[in-house]
Amino acid sequence: MRRFRFSSLILRSTSPRLFAATPPPPPRPRRFSQFHSPRFLLSSVVAADKSYLNPNLWSIPNYRSTNSNTLFFSSNNYLLHKYAHFSSQRNPYERVEIISEENIKPASPTPDNLRTYEVSVLDQLLAHHYMPFVYFFPNNHKKEEDGDDLLLTLKKRRQLLKKSLSETLTRFYPLAGKVKNSREIDCNDDGVYYVEAKINDRLSDFLKQPDNKSIHQFLPVDPNSIESLFSKTYVVMIQVTEFDCGGIAIGLCTSHKIIDGYSHATFLKAWAAATNETSEEIICPSFISPSIFPPNPAMPESTTLALAPTYSKQSKSATRRFVFSSSSIKELKEKAGASTRVMAVTGLIWKCAMAASKTQSTASNTDPKSSVLAMAINLRNKSSPPMPNYLIGNIFWSSVPIRWRPDDDLEMSFIVQRVKSAIAEINNSNFIEKMKGREWSLKVEEHINELKKYYEDENAYYVLVTGMCNGGIYEVDFGWGKPIWVSYGNADTDIPLFSNFVLLMDTRVGNGVEAWVTLSEEDMNVLEKDPEILAFASLNPSPLEIN
């Protein structure tokens, strides 16, 4: 397995007397630059401030393990982790070989007056955890067209990717800095953490039936691992992996501290346009969100936007992909009376998830649970005048959660109407105006307190829906064609950020939706067999078959 335990690392950099008496595990095979790269080196600066981390994870019971090491400290005695979950088994999906690791810095230094980026209040409310996505590009190289053999072409691509990334970071300067605390990014030009790798496989063979966990090897760090939570203050981390056939996987971990799904897509499209020598497009990001939604210096570090409860009682989760074609969505919208595909798919998945929860309650002779649905809604096109197209930041808000009681009718049209009403409240431009400017403070605080009331019932069945539909993720073109598949990288992790989570993404062709659904294993066993959802969606199809 490519990711090494922190115990192995820390034992090389701190005094043994600072550790508990628990013996360390046997060392794993040494890989390229194992102890000389940003991936494995801890500095006292990184370890010093736990505000970099996602505090919500510590309240998840299954994040702690009786088989874990106990307490570890850095040389400056900062607590690095406590009762952290580790896996001692080699990842059977790990086949990627790391070739190089470095920091890619901006081509031009950031001016002194821009060295500190104070985030917006919406960013301030988000924890610093990473959103992982992997973009798979087929090999469109034709020797007779460019006169180069494949190896030379791949070498040129590697050089061009790094050069264009460096140029792009000049415009996206906060992304080359470090997360300093909940309110500031230190724009110090340290750069983006960048990994080059290769895999002895053909992209077409891999995509025939990719396992969710196999996606993790294409990311610069394992999603939600101790490594990603404790060793990094990077805003962006990237891994470029080459397949034997010349296909390429580009995996990105972008910090939710200042990057939401649409900001992520903007950055990647800008980098791709700078790499594509035939493209004349120059994407210039806007960093004015702090002036639209001013930060609150008095806000406590622990204040977060409530999108879901911060606790989880389930022992294990499972993720499945449900792919809705354009034709099935059209049929679903007509049946449900929905005006948008997101509304229709959200209503159906929530309905079937609630039915799965009821089935499990019946099987275990427990009382059925009320269900609460929350949706993260993009605000960019909700204001007048509209915000800039390439506005960077967390420009979204949570809908007021919808509560559905066990004895409520599960008729699809009723559910969709409730979803529609919740979205309409955010779509109202007056709502956005109340959140802007210097008068926002009380409104934000009121809304957060209102949201928290919905999460006081520990026995309720919570579902969070978010998405990147219409974000342009399949428009990315580095000069060798658009991606054949864009994959979510956080599926089937041992430590899910939320228990019941739905991510909606575009499909490669048409107007379809690819829904990544994470539930408890028990609920998923019911959901994946539900004839109602399978009447409209394909379960875990090969990306090569999506049309």
Structure description:
The chain has 16 helices and 19 strands. By secondary structure, the chain is α+β, with helices and mostly antiparallel strands. The chain has a domain at 317-545: 2-Layer Sandwich (Chloramphenicol Acetyltransferase). Strands 11, 12, 13, 14, 15, 17, 18 and 19 form an eight-stranded mixed sheet that branches. Strands 3-8-9-10-5-16 form a six-stranded mixed sheet, with helices on one face. Strands 4-7-6 form a three-stranded antiparallel sheet, with no helix packed on it. β17 and β18 (513-520) form a beta hairpin. It is globular, with a radius of gyration of 23 Å. The protein starts with 5 loop residues before the first helix and ends in an 8-residue tail after the last strand. GO terms for molecular function: acyltransferase activity. Belongs to the plant acyltransferase family.
For the residues shown, what is the average pLDDT?
Answer: 78
Low-confidence stretches: 1-90
Helix content: 25-40%
CATH superfamily of the domain at 317-545: Chloramphenicol acetyltransferase-like domain
The biggest beta sheet reads: 8 strands, mixed
Radius of gyration: 23 Å
The span between the termini is 34 Å
CATH topology of the domain at 317-545: Chloramphenicol Acetyltransferase
Work out the helix count.
16
State the CATH class of the domain at 317-545.
Alpha Beta
Class inferred from helices and paired strands: alpha+beta
